[in-house]
Specification:
- The complex is a heterodimer of chains A (513) and B (126).
- Chain A has 9 helices and 11 strands.
- With 513 residues, chain A is of the alpha+beta class.
- In chain A, the strands form 3 sheets. Chain A has a 5-stranded mixed beta sheet with strand order 6-8-9-11-10. A 4-stranded antiparallel beta sheet of chain A has the order 2-1-4-3, covered by helices on one side.
- In chain A, α1 runs antiparallel to α3.
- Chain B has 126 residues and is of the alpha/beta class.
- Chain B is built from 6 helices and 5 strands, in the order βααβαβαβαβα.
- In chain B, strands 2-1-3-4-5 form a 5-stranded parallel beta sheet, sandwiched between helices.
- Chain B is globular.
- The chains are: A alpha+beta (513), B alpha/beta (126).
- Chains A and B meet through α4, α5 and α6 of A and α1 and α5 of B.
Chain lengths: 513, 126
């Protein structure tokens, strides 16, 4: 059961008031009455003793007026019921073996009242006896006093108690109201304010000017709400700042995304540019043959038509022309392949998987990559070992994508061996790049291995991360291997790297078949 | 007779030169030796005793040792030999490099054989 603070206060006040009223109404009057009765008894006993002493003296002196004077001593008391002088006689039996005490009334005031000599006190009368002995007579004084005075006093006490109780009760109620006002009301106000603060209304304050603990509680509460309000405002403003920062970040992310897209494009264009340099020169070689062999063939035909040419010569000439035409066709096709390879690289749109002779493709990629790097650095030299598995025929790939990856890896390999050649003077070391294919059970594995500078373990972890590059600023975008990784992933393949720092690196591309 | 060594990784060069210079070959004005890599060229040179060739025509861009390496080597070992670079890479960088290494002439592909013949005659004659 929930007992409110108010109830508790009232219960406390009421129980204190009740206890106090009980004390005043019951315990206090009873005690008072007992005390009164005791004093009254004592007083009457004293009166009896005094009268007895007076009577004794009067009888001893045989002054009977003195007896009257002694009795007069109490006669004036309004509460006196009676006063008797009793005579006590000892009456022996005949053989003097036992005796009886006989008490008789000698004199009584007021006259004519029958007195029981053995009378005792009751509610309405208090009877006291005091004995006296003289040579003339033995006796006692018996005093009877009405209890009217005590009953009056009792009534008085009860009235007073009732009045005091009433006052106590009223004061108690007032204290109760005061306590309720000073404790319960501000506490309830605090509770309601706290509830509203809890609901989010931070404008709540309590008005409490008392200087007790509740007042302090109110002040502390107000301070707390102030602090809360301040804190909330700070949170609000920092939220606004955060939201702004978030917007800025969002914008930055979008900018980054478009920058990344641009970078990927420029990486493509950069590698295309490098390839174009290689291809443009490379195409000169077959063109050289096409031009020269066709010119030669034209000359040979003129020679054939000349009148002095013998039949024997004519047969030789025809043979030469035939061989030249074969060469023209061969080199024409070669130029065609080179141009097609370049076109594949420049194409933007998503390619489709087509069956491609992987070994032949790698052969061409190697030539293109090698000439690409030669175009940049004419003194570059490197032994290229091709170790192709003859069991491999056509594989379904997007050729321009795989070309990109292979040429990128080859460029890296050539870069690694040229770096090692620049940095170290090793007489027994020959720059070598090995391009290999291997037909495994359900996988075609392409390996591109170099004996260049190698990669440290630290770098190896980040090698496929976008924008990670070990090349000097401006030389690499850091996107090459990241793009390779994405391309191979989208082919459903895997690209792995093994490397030992200072010894060389091998990249392996596993394509599922 | 001018004896010339031609260094190129393209095998068809042999057929091309033999046809282009067939009249000169018939008249024994020229004699050719073909080497298909810089390595085999130096091997051939070191096997000659005495050295009877006077002119080397070398490609630059070849797998393995490049024509420029060959040029450097020839000029240090056999300074009397004339070397003419014949290349598809006619850029300034290659051109400057070739002359700094002591090349006697520099022509670009596709080869103009009339011009080449004149150059050979003038180089071989001196």
């Amino acid at each position: 059961m929930r007992i409110t603070l108010k109830t508790k206060i009232w219960l406390t006040v009421l129980s204190v008031v009740m206890m106090f009223a009980f004390f005043i109404l019951f315990y206090f009057p009873i005690q008072q009455e007992k005390y009164l009765l005791k004093n009254f008894n004592k007083e009457i006993q004293n009166l009896a003793n005094t009268v007895a002493l007076g009577v004794k003296i009067a009888i001893t002196e045989q002054n009977f007026e003195g007896v009257q004077t002694a009795i007069d001593f109490v006669k004036g008391d309004p509460h006196l019921r009676f006063i008797s002088i009793l005579q006590t006689d000892t009456i022996w039996n005949d053989n003097h073996s036992s005796y009886n005490i006989k008490r008789t009334v000698f004199k009584t005031y007021p006259d004519g009242i029958n007195i029981d000599v053995n009378q005792t006190s009751n509610d309405s009368i208090i009877v006291k006896e005091s004995s006296f002995n003289t040579s003339l007579m033995n006796g006692s004084i018996l005093l009877g006093f009405s209890t009217n005075e005590i009953v009056d006093s009792k009534k008085q006490i009860r009235l007073t108690s009732l009045a005091v109780s009433l006052i106590v009760f009223i004061v108690g109620i007032l204290i109760g109201f005061w306590l309720a006002r000073n404790i319960s009301v501000p506490v309830l106000a605090l509770r309601d304010a706290a509830n509203r603060v809890g609901e989010g209304d931070l404008s709540q304050r309590v008005n409490n000017y008392s200087r007790d603990e509740i007042g302090e509680l109110g002040v502390a509460f107000n301070r707390m709400v102030n602090d809360l309000e301040k804190a909330q405002e700070e949170i609000k403003s920092s939220n606004i700042a955060l939201a702004k920062a978030n917007d800025e970040l969002q914008l930055t992310v979008e900018n980054l995304k478009s920058t990344q897209a641009q970078l990927i494009q420029s990486e493509k264009m950069a590698s295309l540019g490098q390839l174009t340099a290689g291809i443009a020169h490379e195409i000169q070689n077959p063109l050289n043959f096409v031009n020269n062999f066709s010119e030669l063939s034209a000359e040979l035909i003129q020679e054939y038509e000349a009148s002095e040419t013998t039949n024997e010569d004519k047969i030789e000439i025809i043979k030469d022309i035939k061989s030249n035409l074969e060469k023209i066709a061969h080199h024409g096709k070669r130029a065609d392949r080179i141009v097609k390879g370049m076109l594949m690289h420049s194409r933007e749109q998503k390619g489709e998987k087509i069956p491609v002779k992987i070994n032949q493709q790698l052969e061409e990629d190697t030539t293109i990559a090698f000439h690409g790097i030669r175009a940049k650095n004419s003194s570059f030299q490197c032994e290229i070992v091709k170790d192709f598995d003859d069991k491999i025929d056509k594989v379904n790939i997007i050729p321009q994508d795989i070309n990109r990856v292979v040429i990128n890896l080859l460029n890296n390999a050539f870069y690694a061996v040229s770096e090692r050649a620049n940095n170290e003077n090793e007489p027994n070391w020959k720059p070598t790049v090995i391009v290999s294919t291997k037909h495994l059970i359900d996988v075609i594995s392409i390996g591109i291995e170099d004996n260049g500078t190698g990669i440290s373990d630290e770098v190896k972890e980040k090698i496929f991360n976008p924008f990670f590059t070990t090349k000097p600023t401006g030389e690499g975008t850091g996107l090459g291997l990241s793009i390779c990784y994405d391309i191979i992933k989208s082919h459903g393949g895997e690209i792995k790297v093994q490397s030992e720092y200072g010894k060389g690196t091998k990249f392996t591309i596993d394509l599922k078949i | 007779m001018i004896k010339i060594m031609i260094v190129d990784d393209e095998q068809d060069v042999e057929s091309l030169f033999m046809q282009r210079f067939r009249k000169d070959l018939k008249s024994n004005q020229f004699e050719f030796h073909f080497a298909f890599s810089a390595e085999s060229a130096t091997q051939y040179l070191s096997s000659l005793n005495p050295i009877d060739i006077v002119l080397i025509l070398s490609d630059i861009n070849m797998p393995g040792k490049s024509g420029l390496d060959l040029l450097k080597e020839v000029k240090s070992k056999f300074p009397q030999l004339k070397v003419m670079m014949v290349t598809a890479y006619g850029d300034q960088q290659n051109y400057d490099k070739a002359f700094s290494l002591g090349a006697d002439d520099f022509i670009t592909k596709p080869i103009d054989f009339e011009q080449l013949r004149e150059k050979i005659v003038s180089l071989g004659g001196t």
